[in-house]
């Protein structure tokens, strides 16, 4: 008999495989968009399932190491992705980026079918279609509004931007109210009753915004500001991203031993320092200097992300594990999308402002200078987010589990 968790796993991986194959064969934007939606649906199911399984299988004193290993797995693709993608784009076409994935997904599907067991009580919750509609409109409208603001033109003053953000926020308020009053909510918001879950979520969201805002802009700057090839830009990002993944298990074990505070606060200080230096880079900055800054940035992120997430999930009771992982994963994706949109908006507006005041806006050197000016502003934005996260980090307390009760302590 195939258990519910196995069904979820199969459905998520199959959706990812189908989406990836469609993307590899895509010949227009619409086809690629459908493919990316299928991939997102697959990952949206798989990642919370993975975290929930860890929370159930591992005792609290060993969850840090387990979550750290997950961090290693999750960061492997970002570590190698820009390099491999740069190489493929330079010598082949972007379609081959998607052709690389199906073999690994198929292997993962076969391994899961052989080894996956049901570890939680099987339930059959009713799907509330109104909740689905409200959450889709809410999150989708907010993300679209922020993305639209980054397209230039009127920016944040665009009535379309304001309208979609307002519609999204109203829908999210209605969604939250419905979850509160439902007997079996689709997303149980009682997880926000636990202070360390709130602090951990906010820190994870900060990390997501920092990574995606800075890591979207940095490759663009390396290619357009410093005139490097896509492959060279990918190679420069490889050491830091790889080290982030490799350090995740180690940070997890340190979390199990010492708790989150002595990792999270120094980590955010390191991230803030690296982003401060990033805000001063120019086309004359050396490759070694930028690689060193990126390594420092990713080391700092590895000290913050998994300890914050694990500590926050530890405080929620076992019956809320699935909801806690779902809430965190959903908010991560939204925060990442918003961070990316804001970064692109700052970049676009900064370049337009610089070139508008330039005597030779079509000059290649001036365009590189405009990219430099705008990129520096994005890194300053990421540093502000980091400092806000640092202020929140002083409220983090280690969650200690005693006889099934989970309480924050010093």
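-> sequence recovered:
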């Amino acid at each position: 008999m195939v258990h519910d968790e196995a069904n979820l796993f199969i459905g998520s991986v199959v959706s990812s495989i189908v989406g990836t194959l469609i993307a590899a064969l895509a010949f227009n934007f619409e086809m690629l968009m459908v493919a990316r939606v299928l991939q997102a649906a697959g990952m949206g199911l798989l990642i919370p399932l993975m975290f929930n399984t860890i929370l159930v299988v591992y005792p609290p004193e060993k969850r840090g190491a387990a979550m750290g290993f997950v961090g290693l797995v999750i960061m492997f693709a970002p570590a190698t992705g820009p390099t491999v993608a740069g190489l493929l784009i330079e010598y082949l076409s972007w379609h081959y980026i998607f052709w690389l994935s199906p073999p690994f997904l198929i292997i993962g599907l076969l391994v899961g079918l052989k080894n996956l067991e049901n570890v939680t009580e099987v339930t059959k919750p009713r799907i509330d279609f109104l909740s689905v509609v409200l959450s889709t409109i809410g999150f989708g409208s907010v993300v679209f509004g922020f993305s639209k603001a980054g397209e230039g033109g009127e920016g944040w003053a665009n009535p379309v931007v304001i309208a979609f953000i307002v519609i999204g926020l109203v829908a999210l308020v209605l969604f939250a109210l419905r979850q509160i009053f439902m007997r079996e909510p689709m997303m149980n918001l009682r997880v926000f009753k636990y202070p360390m879950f709130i602090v951990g979520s906010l820190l994870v969201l900060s990390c997501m915004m920092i990574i995606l805002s800075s890591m979207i802009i940095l490759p663009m700057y390396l290619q357009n500001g410093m005139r490097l090839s896509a492959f060279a830009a990918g190679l420069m990002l490889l050491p830091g991203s790889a080290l982030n993944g490799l350090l995740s298990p180690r940070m997890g074990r340190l979390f199990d031993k010492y708790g989150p505070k002595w990792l999270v606060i120094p980590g955010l200080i390191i991230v803030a320092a690296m982003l401060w230096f990033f805000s001063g880079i120019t086309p004359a900055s050396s490759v070694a200097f930028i690689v060193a800054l990126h390594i420092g940035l990713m080391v700092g992120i590895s000290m913050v992300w998994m300890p914050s997430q694990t500590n926050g999930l530890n405080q929620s009771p076992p019956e809320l594990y699935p909801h806690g992982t779902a809430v965190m994963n959903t908010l991560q994706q939204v925060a990442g999308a918003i961070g990316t949109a804001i970064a692109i908006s700052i970049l676009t507006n900064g370049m337009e402002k610089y070139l508008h005041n330039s005597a030779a806006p079509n000059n290649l050197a001036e365009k590189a200078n405009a990219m430099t000016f705008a990129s520096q502003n994005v890194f300053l934005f990421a540093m502000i987010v980091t400092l806000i996260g640092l202020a929140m980090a002083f409220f983090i307390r280690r969650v200690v589990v005693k006889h099934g009760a989970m309480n924050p302590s010093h």
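The two ends are 46 Å apart (CA to CA).
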